[in-house]
């Protein structure tokens, strides 16, 4: 083959290669995203959800009203704790829990949704009566109530004033105008019942009175004895005096009852609570021994009080007038 003919064949091959279209690559969408080629018939799906992607959820873990605040002991793992708040609300479509003790650390982000001031909010702004939403950080202890650490707390504003007789979203008792009560002794023994287990103690500020709720497991309410007592208030086992805020002290004795499990673990974790209600100033457990459970309410003055028995769940309600 002559040199001239060979050169001609090479020129024809190079021209044919230049006219061949390039192999298709990923298509680029108008927003800069790419679409992978999809085998098989039918159009490619752009932006289809990944089945292996982690589940995401909008909203907070807990939304409700701060009903108590508490100091915490220093130390322990993680960021130093500034204190704890009890937040109580309801499970909503975008939340997971209805109430819990929330630990606030130096790493917790506290913000206001509305009405931002020149000063950034701090733990001292988390006061009783504020409505907040909380996003958790780390593990959640499923106790009653739950315990968690806050990654973020958003202050939504002041909670609306509760209606007469409202407690935990349930109606209980009459209006303050119908509340006469007593400053004497209320005694209702039930010695033939098996011991009831106290599983929760709650407080609420109502229109005209402050409320303490003792909730029990099961359907049986134990006997009870209430009276104002003199200082010093003492622990039933050791006899050690218990410093308690207020100028009067209403003792609530529950018999037969336990406030611990068979393994000896307390069923109510928060056994001392400092409050800033119109009358109720402090609440403390003073006895859980031989089927006797006692709590003492430190109040501003020995005002008249009443007792209500409620069911579903089983509760003993103590209201102290303002």
Structure description:
- By secondary structure, the protein is mainly beta.
- It folds into two domains: 62-158, OB fold (Dihydrolipoamide Acetyltransferase, E2P) (Beta Barrel); 166-321, Immunoglobulin-like.
- It contains one helix and 21 strands.
- It has one helix spanning 3-19, and strands at 27-28, 34-35, 62-70, 81-89, 99-105, 109-112, 130-141, 146-158, 166-167, 170-171, 186-188, 196-205, 209-216, 223-229, 248-255, 257-258, 272-274, 280-289, 292-299, 305-310, 314-321.
- The strands form five sheets. A six-stranded antiparallel β-sheet has the order 11-14-15-19-18-17, with no helix packed on it. The protein has a five-stranded mixed beta barrel with strand order 3-4-5-8-7.
- A hairpin with a 4-residue loop joins β7 (130-141) and β8.
- The N and C termini lie far apart (118 Å).
Question: How many strand elements?
Answer: 21
Strand content: 35-45%
Q: What would you report as the Rg, rounded to the nearest angstrom?
A: 32 Å
Which regions have little confidence, pLDDT < 50, spanning 5+ residues? 10-57, 161-177
Query: Largest beta sheet: what is the strand line-up?
Result: 11-14-15-19-18-17
Here the CATH topology of the largest domain equals: Immunoglobulin-like
Instruction: Determine the mean pLDDT.
Output: 77
- Tell me about the largest β-sheet: 6 strands, antiparallel
- Through-space gap between termini: 118 Å
How many independent structural domains?
2
Q: So, CATH architecture of the largest domain? A: Sandwich
Structural class: mainly beta
Top CATH class of the largest domain? Mainly Beta
Share of helical residues = under 10%
Task: Specify the overall morphology.
Answer: globular
């Amino acid at each position: 083959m002559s040199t001239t003919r060979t050169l001609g064949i090479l020129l024809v091959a190079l021209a044919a290669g230049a006219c061949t279209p390039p192999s298709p690559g990923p298509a680029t969408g108008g927003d800069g995203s790419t679409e992978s080629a999809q085998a098989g018939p039918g159009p490619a799906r752009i932006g289809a959800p990944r089945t292996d992607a982690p589940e995401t959820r909008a909203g907070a873990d807990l939304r409700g009203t701060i009903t108590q605040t508490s100091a915490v002991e220093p130390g322990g793992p993680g960021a130093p704790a500034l204190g704890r708040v009890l937040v109580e609300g309801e499970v909503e479509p975008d939340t997971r829990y209805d109430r819990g003790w929330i630990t606030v650390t130096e790493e917790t982000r506290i913000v206001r949704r509305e009405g931002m001031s020149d000063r950034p909010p701090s733990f001292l702004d988390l006061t009783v009566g504020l409505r907040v939403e909380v996003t958790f950080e780390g593990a959640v202890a499923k106790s009653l109530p739950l315990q968690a650490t806050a990654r973020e707390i958003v202050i939504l504003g002041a909670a609306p004033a509760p209606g007469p007789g409202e407690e935990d979203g349930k109606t209980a008792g009459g209006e303050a105008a119908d509340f006469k009560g007593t400053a004497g002794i209320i005694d209702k023994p039930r010695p033939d019942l098996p011991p009831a287990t106290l599983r929760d103690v709650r407080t609420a500020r109502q229109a005209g009175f402050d409320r303490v709720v003792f909730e029990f497991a099961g359907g049986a309410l134990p006997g009870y004895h209430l009276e104002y007592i003199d200082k010093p208030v003492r622990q039933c086992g050791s006899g050690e005096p218990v410093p308690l805020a207020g100028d009067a002290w209403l003792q609530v004795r529950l018999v037969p009852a336990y406030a611990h499990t068979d393994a000896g673990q307390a069923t109510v974790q928060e056994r001392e609570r400092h409050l800033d209600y119109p009358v109720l100033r402090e609440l403390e457990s003073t006895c859980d021994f031989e089927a006797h459970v006692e709590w003492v309410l430190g109040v501003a003055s020995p005002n008249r009080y009443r007792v209500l028995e409620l069911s579903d769940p089983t509760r003993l309600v103590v209201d102290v007038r303002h």
